[in-house]
Amino acid sequence: MSCLNLSAQHQPSTKTSSSVQARAVKRLVPGKDQVVLQQLESLEKRLFKKADSWTGLFSKEAVRRNCVLLYVTHDSQVAAYIVYTTNGLAAHIAKLAVRDNLRRQGIGRSLVRAAVETARRERRVGSCSLHVDPGNTAAVGLYRSLGFAVEAELQDYYAPGRSAYKMRLELD
What we know:
The protein is an alpha+beta fold. It has 5 helices and 7 strands, in the order αβααβββαβαββ.
């Protein structure tokens, strides 16, 4: 059984902007954070290929009762976000994105921790799952360092010839 490593022992391997790490993780409030939604859409377009993009879906997903979107800002702009859903006693991380120039500074780690803790506190989930491209070694490494384990490799998950790891974190 894996546990989420909640300690703040992570030391990024590149220059760290303490102002970014010190930023609070915020929760999107559906219907009130229209500027944030626009920034999310813009960031999504920059970071993901059209086939992998949620452009146009954030406003629809954000109002779902079992969907939570957390984000971090830097210089008054959305710098990173995570989207997760809950179903029964399980959470599923559907999306994690960090602006290119702010990667490897602990922001993604902070968002994953915040999502897992929020789901555990609010919904009493016992596990958290996600899907990740095996070729995205930085993401796979991040998730493994937080206690996620590969449960299966799903062939042709993203597209023909593009598989995904299904990873799971069991919570105590």
